[in-house]
Amino acid sequence: MTKVPFTNLKLKIDNSIGCFKCGDQEIQVAQYLPFEDKYALVMIALQNAEEDDIYNPIKLDMYFNLYLVFMYSNITFTDKQKEDPTKLYDLLESNGIIDGIISLIPDKEYEELQSYVEEVMKRKLEARKSVGAIINRFITDLPKQAEAMQKILDDFNPEQYQNVIDFAKAANGGRDIN
Question: What are the φ and ψ backbone dihedral angles of 25, each rounded to 5 degrees?
Answer without folding.
Answer: -100, 140
